[in-house]
Amino acid sequence: xxxxxxxxxxxxxxxxxxxxxxxxxxxxxxxxxxxxxxxxxxxxxxxxxxxxxxxxxxxxxxxxxxxxxxxxxxxxxxxxxxxxxxxxxxxxxxxxxx
Length: 98
Prior knowledge:
The chain has helices at residues 5-11, 25-38, 42-59, 68-79, 86-93. It is mostly helical.
């Protein structure tokens, strides 16, 4: 499953949002060197790097890739009846702390 809003945002040609960030001098040098190596501006480099990491973080929470045996085990676990855990039941029945 992909987040529906991601392609729409990435396809937009007009950039209207601004982000300011502070970085250490060492990170600044690192970002500048990496951007120059790729022939990109530092902004392009940071936006693309940030986008890739954001997509990976979100994908880790929405996409699962399993082999055949792992999928069968996963599906079987989902199909099992839920077990009542007395400790969890007791916890859920406690009043909320004020």
